[in-house]
Design brief:
By secondary structure, this protein is an alpha/beta fold. It folds into two domains: 178 residues, 3-Layer(aba) Sandwich (Rossmann fold), CATH 3.40.50.360; 76 residues, 2-Layer Sandwich (Alpha-Beta Plaits), CATH 3.30.70. The protein contains eight helices and nine strands. The strands form three sheets. It has a five-stranded parallel sheet with strand order 2-1-3-4-5, with helices on both faces. Strands 6-9 form a two-stranded antiparallel sheet. It is globular. The protein binds flavin mononucleotide and iron/sulfur cluster (SF4) (2 copies). Flavin mononucleotide (FMN) binds next to helix 1 and strand 4.
Length: 270
């Protein structure tokens, strides 16, 4: 891919707890340093993509959920208009180190639509899901170290991409099938309400409901009630961003766990 021909770039991202936002903003800075014009757009606020034609390149960034991209990211890609010009797409994933078949599943859809896969890069970031396995968060130092390593890798990846070295991650049909099965069971289990609110702590601030990407939460101050519907995609944002740690997973087990909220300010101000 010849970067000299690329002037306008859109970075579409979804980020539950800020890791993917951090990676997207880091790439935004790299592109700006190369005098590219960049629009950074959160996927969760996009209904229909009609304006992608004005961009020479798309970047799509997502967190890995059960070896796949979250449903709303896959839906976003499925809804992209086709490309007649083999428009390049760079896919970026943030994960705990196991991207599974997330790239190959999205690559397939994009190629079918006429896009060109510029590269697939993934970043091992602090995971936001350890509580599901009854494990507390890693220490703040470990968190900062992981983020710094991811940033270093992003610079190397960007430099390679810019100099024409491309990297596309492939996985075979069995791996894709495995990822689809794990994801299917994860989604099914999420339909059952797993979030439990501690009403001794809740201050009915509505941060959870206002920031849920699928409008899955309703807060009724008068009734002193926080209700979850069946649209949860398990981004863990509500659990991690509640200012008083009033949201627990399944039981009280998680009540003493630290929350992953290092990017809280950036997420809530977007
Ligand atoms: C429900 C769920 C499932 C996850 N599954 C995976 C996985 O299969 N592989 C992996 O490496 N990380 C997995 N993770 C970790 C996240 O991908 C990782 O923490 C990511 O950086 C979060 O990005 P965000 O802050 O932008 O949401 C999972 C996280 C959640 C919440
Ligand atoms: S974010 Fe926490 S404190 Fe605020 S309404 Fe939701 S559960 Fe209650
Ligand atoms: S209910 Fe919580 S975990 Fe589920 S989608 Fe909304 S913010 Fe994310």
């Amino acid at each position: 891919m010849d970067f000299k021909k690329i002037k306008n770039i859109a970075i579409y991202y979804f980020s539950g707890t800020g890791n993917t936002l951090f990676i997207s903003e880091t790439y935004n800075k790299y592109f700006l340093l190369k005098s590219k014009s960049v629009d950074l757009k959160p996927i969760e606020n996009i209904e229909i993509v009609s304006s992608q034609g004005k961009y020479d390149m798309l970047v799509i960034a997502f967190p890995v959920h059960a070896f796949k991209a979250p449903k709303l990211v896959e839906k976003f890609i499925n809804n992209l208009p086709s490309s007649t010009t083999k428009k390049p797409v760079l896919l970026l994933a943030s994960c705990g180190g196991m991207p599974g078949s997330s790239f190959s599943i999205l690559n397939k859809i994009l190629i079918k639509k006429g896009y060109y896969i510029a590269s697939n890069f993934y970043y091992s970031m602090p995971d936001n899901v350890s509580f599901m396995f009854s494990k507390d968060l890693i220490s703040e130092k470990e968190i900062m170290d992981k983020i710094a390593l991811a940033k270093d890798k992003s610079f190397k990846d960007f430099t390679n991409l810019y100099s024409g070295k491309e990297e596309v991650i492939k996985s075979n049909i069995f791996k894709r099938l495995f990822s689809n099965i794990v994801f299917y069971f994860l989604s099914k289990s999420l339909k059952k309400n797993k979030w439990v609110v501690d009403y001794n702590k809740c201050i009915f601030c509505e941060i959870c409901s206002k920031n849920c990407p699928t409008q899955n939460i309703t807060v009724k101050k008068q009734k002193r009630e926080v209700k979850f519907s069946d649209k949860c995609i398990m981004c863990t944002r509500c659990y991690n961003l509640c200012p008083v740690n009033a949201i627990n997973y399944k039981s009280e087990k998680t009540k003493d766990f630290k929350r992953y909220n290092i990017f809280k300010k950036e997420l809530i101000s977007k």
